[in-house]
């Protein structure tokens, strides 16, 4: 599917009936040939929005997958780049593409870093976490950042109910909930559980100061609103040392 180099429907079905970790291990060799890989346009727009806020020292890609976010960090960070993910298969692909970066296998709900980074990014991963899991994720990112550090993540604006994409995403989430109700292990991936307001509230509760800038390079809707925004979560410069 998707391209001649992408996974077949059978391979996708096998992945969807696996755990999240095992599913991504299976998909890793062909992941970059699917629509699930963060598009270059989003990566480039994020880098352009962050560039005036830098330069940065060491950078962290949270839920790095095959390493697409490394191109953002490499263009912004003067220190070493680190990616963290729990899929060994995805990390192997990232390591092959960016051998100079550090690639760490870990559960991002318990990040093994303390005040090590100036910038953290994450692309397209929030749907893999239930709302109740986000506080642990964000607390770990907060702990991993140095005082004054920045956590940036692009989030698409809500789809209007008249949009075909609204109904497609709703249908996908309902299908995943039905799958997880009858099949184990669960595969957590929901598109409609990580809205801007909910994510902002969780980041604020974790200690961040949260703002958002529109990624206008990605276009606007008919009403003039941006299609995507970049959430900027800042750790206070005077935050006490962990």
UniProtKB/TrEMBL annotation:
Domain Methyltransferase: 60-149
Keyword set, alphabetical order: Methyltransferase, Transferase
GO molecular function terms noted in the UniProt entry: methyltransferase activity
Pfam families: Methyltransf_25
Enzyme class: transferase
Record bears the keyword Transferase: yes
Gene Ontology biological process: methylation
EC number: 2.1.-.-
Protein name: Class I SAM-dependent methyltransferase
Species classification: Bacteria, Bacillati, Actinomycetota, Actinomycetes, Streptosporangiales
């Amino acid at each position: 599917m998707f391209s001649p180099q992408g996974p077949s429907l059978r391979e996708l079905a096998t992945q969807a009936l696996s755990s999240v970790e095992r599913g991504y291990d299976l998909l890793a060799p062909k992941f970059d040939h699917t629509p699930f890989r963060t598009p270059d346009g989003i990566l480039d727009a994020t880098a352009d929005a962050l560039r005036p806020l830098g330069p940065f020292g060491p950078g962290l890609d949270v839920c790095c997958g095959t390493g697409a976010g490394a191109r953002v960090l490499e263009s912004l960070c003067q220190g070493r780049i680190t990616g963290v993910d729990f899929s060994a298969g995805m990390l192997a692909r990232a390591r092959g593409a960016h051998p100079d970066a550090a690639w760490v296998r870990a559960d991002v709900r318990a990040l093994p870093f303390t005040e090590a980074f100036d910038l953290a990014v994450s692309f397209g991963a929030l749907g893999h976490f239930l709302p109740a899991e986000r506080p642990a994720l964000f607390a770990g990112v907060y702990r991993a950042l140095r005082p004054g550090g920045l956590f940036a993540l692009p989030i698409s604006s809500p789809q209007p109910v008249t949009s075909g994409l609204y109904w497609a995403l709703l249908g996908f989430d309902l299908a995943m909930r039905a799958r997880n109700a009858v099949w184990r292990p669960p595969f957590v991936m929901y598109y409609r559980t990580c809205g801007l307001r909910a994510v902002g509230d969780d980041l604020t509760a974790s200690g961040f100061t949260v703002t958002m800038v529109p990624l206008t390079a990605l276009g606007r809707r008919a009403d003039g609103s941006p299609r995507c925004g970049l959430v900027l979560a800042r750790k206070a410069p005077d935050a006490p040392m962990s």
